[in-house]
Structure formats: C-alpha cells, structure tokens
Design a protein that fits this description.
Layout (H helix, E strand, L loop, with lengths): L3 H9 L4 E5 L6 H8 L7 E8 L2 E8 L6 H8 L4 E3 L2 H4 L21 E5 L7 E5 L5 E6 H8 L2 E3 L3
Parallel strand pairs: 3-5, 5-8
Antiparallel strand pairs: 1-7, 2-3, 2-4, 6-7
C-alpha cells in the first residue's frame, strides 16, 4: 500500500488511482522497464535547494534537470541538488529516495516540468522502491498545484 499519508490524501479527495507493485527498482528507467511503460510517464522526484530553500522538482523519468533553464524559470540565483543528508528526515513515511511528488504533504514547494503535462496520466513512487501509483495528471495538478516550468 502507498504510505498512509499519501493514501489518505488521495482517498480524501476522491481521486481515482491504481497501485502497481513491481520488483525493487531505484531509478525511473528501471521502473519503466519493469512495468513496460514509457520513461516519460514515470515522474521522478528530485530534491533541490533553491537559493538555500528546499524544494521538490518533478520531471519525466527520461529527462534530467537543466539547472540553467530551471534558474531562469523561477528567477533564482542558485539551484543545486540537495544531498540525502539534507532531506533524509523530511519523508519519514518513505524509503530514502522513494518520495512521491507531493511536496504539499511535506511543506515543500513543488516545481513540475512542463513535459509532464503532455500525458493524461502520471506514474510515481508511492514511498517505496517496489510500489508505484498511477493517476491522472490533471488530478495530480489539481491536488498539488505545482509551479509548472521548464526544468529540462
């Protein structure tokens, strides 16, 4: 089951979603291969520091953050990857590196890459390296209200 916090949030908003179980995988590419889905539909969550403040960047699994684009899009002086040590305790209900793209559940600003809007559905880690959630992208956007920008 997805982490209790995530499940309760989705259920309380009446969102239709599907939980998918897969063999343990640590990258979006491995997850996509395991489930035979396009890497662009698997959203990966990257924790960043934007001018010293922690935030969540969400992008298609087949892309990488372009920090120049990201900085320009949000008007930041400096954006860098957060270290695991910096965010280790922020997601107590999740395995390290398997946090869902719901920064709003953890008091974090969320930036979603514009390419995620190209598909009707989104797949993402459900706080585990062996569970994924599939839901509609419009529902995700409605619940999280991410800042949709050019990240890649």
């Amino acid at each position: 089951m997805p982490a209790k916090k995530l499940k309760e949030f989705l259920d309380s908003h009446g969102v239709k979603y599907v939980k998918l179980t897969h063999s343990t995988a640590y990258t979006a590419h491995e997850i996509a291969q395991s489930l035979h889905i396009s890497g662009r539909k698997v959203a990966k969550t990257v924790i960043v520091m934007i001018d010293g403040k922690m935030a969540m960047a969400v992008l298609p699994g087949n892309r990488s953050v372009n920090f120049d684009h990201f900085q320009k899009a949000v008007g930041a002086k400096k954006i860098e990857l957060a270290t695991e040590a910096q965010f280790k305790g922020m997601f107590p209900d999740c395995e390290l590196g398997a946090m869902p793209p719901f920064g709003n559940l953890y008091g974090m600003e969320v930036y979603a890459d514009q390419h995620l809007t190209d598909d009707d559905e989104i797949f993402f880690n459900a706080c585990s390296h062996s569970e994924l959630v599939e839901m509609s992208y419009p529902d995700y956007e409605r619940l999280v209200k991410p800042n949709v920008v050019k990240l890649t």
